[in-house]
Amino acid sequence: AIVDAQRNLAEQVSGVQVDAETTVENFVISSDLVKTKVSALIKGAVVVEEQMMPDGAYRVVMSMPMYGSQGLASAIMPAIRDNTPVISATITTQIQMGGTYTGVIIDAGGMGLKPSFSPVIYDTNGRAIYGVSNINYDQAISQGMVGYSSSVSSAQTLPRVGTTPLVIKAVQVRGGNNSTN
Prior knowledge:
By secondary structure, the chain is α+β, with helices and mostly antiparallel strands. The protein has six helices and six strands, in the order H-H-H-E-E-H-E-E-E-H-H-E. Strands 1-2 form a two-stranded antiparallel sheet. Strands 3-6 form a two-stranded parallel ribbon. A two-stranded antiparallel ribbon has the order 4-5. Strand 4 and strand 5 form a beta hairpin. Helix 4 runs antiparallel to helix 5. The chain is globular, with a radius of gyration of 19 Å.
């Protein structure tokens, strides 16, 4: 039952979206190092529930962390960094509204976005203003590049945005509803 649960976990992990075009499976196929790290994480997954079923089958639920030194991010973030071209120009976006903000919340409610390990945020002129090329990798491994919430009000309670976050309404999804951009 544990081996079967690990196999199912491997299938789930392989489908995790890394960016708009890539899943974990692509990195596992293209890199022996990523494959080895992801396999070790799956083998080290924790059994969180065991149950004998009425029909005699045995049910096992396993869990592994997405973030942290023993999480999926620790296996794939280095591969993301290695496969991302360096942007030569730094783009600075100034907020004209005044005030001091402790974080940013982008309201993309109703746009059908899927969580991703390395999303890219563009301004209305199509310039990338946030992405894997300008992150703190240690922080991305420990807690992710971004946080996801089901609503603006729940996002406002996340410690990572602080007490006075700037809330911006997304105006468009680049690449369609399934895009992570």
